Amino acid sequence: MKPYILPAIRSMKDLEKLTKTDYETCVLLDTHIGHLRSMMHFMKQNQLQPFVHIDLIKGMSHDEFAAEYIIQTYKPKGVVSTKTKIIKKAKALGVITIFRVFIIDSHALERSIELIERIQPDYVEVLPGIADKVIHQIHAKTGVSVIAGGLIETAEEVQHAIDNGATYITTSVRQLW
């Protein structure tokens, strides 16, 4: 089950814990622009390949220019965003893209499917990750691989999401890494 986990990093403590595992890839969430350089340097030193969630970098604009700066300066494995312009820019710059969608009702599902079909991200992260029906529907209708994230706290929930079509799971629950 572990190969399906993408550890979600929210702090330096999380990063230090991650270096004691076999994981090479993670998602960097909730960081401050002032900490970004040292965190990215630490990850590079430890052969970690991060996906950077552009929308969650505090102190930086959350637009395609910020994405371009992050990609050119730090060369992450890829980016995560809820914004179509960021995904388009990242694709143009040749990094892996994860389009994050929040499915709160059937209208949000329909709108998300339209956006996914239009921008063609490499992956779609569906929140909440325990939305099994939605994971299956998005993958079936768009053909894009789905990452389940949010509210996944047990090994059983990880397995359930995988069984329902998720390619990966993002979680900040360290016991699952």
TrEMBL record:
One Gene Ontology biological process: glycerol metabolic process
InterPro entries in UniProt = Aldolase_TIM, GlpP
Molecular-function GO terms, alphabetical: RNA binding; transcription antitermination factor activity, RNA binding
The record's SUPFAM superfamilies line, in alphabetical order, gives: GlpP-like
**Segments forming a coiled coil:** none
Domain of life of the organism encoding this protein: Bacteria
Task: State the UniProt keywords alphabetically.
Answer: Glycerol metabolism, RNA-binding, Transcription, Transcription regulation
Task: Kindly list the residue ranges recorded as spanning the membrane.
Answer: none
**Protein role:** Regulates expression of the glpD operon. In the presence of glycerol 3-phosphate (G3P) causes antitermination of transcription of glpD at the inverted repeat of the leader region to enhance its transcription. Binds and stabilizes glpD leader mRNA.
Protein name in UniProt: Glycerol uptake operon antiterminator regulatory protein
Species of the source: Staphylococcus felis
